Here is the input.
Amino acid sequence: MTLNEGRPFLRSEARHLSDGQLRRGYRALFHGVYVRHRTPVGDLELAEAALLVAEQGSYVSHHTAARLLGAVAPDHPDVHVTSRRLRVKGAGLTGHRAKAEQQVVLWRGIRMTSPVQTFLDLAHCLTLVDLVVLGDSLVRRRRTTPDELVSATRARRGPYSRLARRAAALVRAGVDSPMETRLRLLIVLAGLPEPEVDHRVHDDGGTLLRRYDLSYLPFRLIIEYDGRQHAESDEQWLSDIGRDEALDDEQIRRLVVVSRDIYSTPTNTLAMITRAMRRAGMPVPRLRHEWRRHFPSRSGDLALPA
Here is the structure.
């Protein structure tokens, strides 16, 4: 490796540089690891730099592996490295001890945990909802499948294995966004019937006409998350008008949920959903209380959903 490549390097590999040259032309990513000042530094470069200070055979894992895979996990400030002897130390690094039979792959030149292993490892760190968000995003990125996650967790034993199994059983294909996952889990954890995910309507020639996030089509009810504050373009606006007119023609009720409905007023949202279900003729069971653990109410919410 040459320093002109713009890749992270150890100080010991650049003895020809004086301390002054190092300060003027390079910056430290971790203790003893440098990169040129003008080099863009992203997740891949940070992972490569972290492995330079880790013992041989180490690999990145947990939140870092999820980010490299393009999956969705809560932000964490450190690069996560798994090593046999847990010797990763220093600011910006979090070390984990390697376990038997951990699955490791080579991803864009970086040793890291496999998608399934990343899901299993993060079961030790994430809540049920965040773990399902991670699983849905891994499936959306085609890194794994729901069946693979269920199979991997079925034989899992030890701490957090029950959480991993339950989260894997809730992962679905075709989920478009983390907020769509959260909306579905609000419904499911309240004990309501699980909606169909990603129902697609095509014309006779196979052209996609519409996609429904969450639907109960036998009852002509769909529920969708809308993260936009307004239509992005005239074309999108016209498309939305055409879709809504088609739904009216088919007498399908479209219930729209926004971010505040999930993060601030989940009780009100469940009340809105159960009302729509009853009006559509759906049987509505007595709600369970588990959803409250994962979707706390804020100011302005109802006390009870029904």
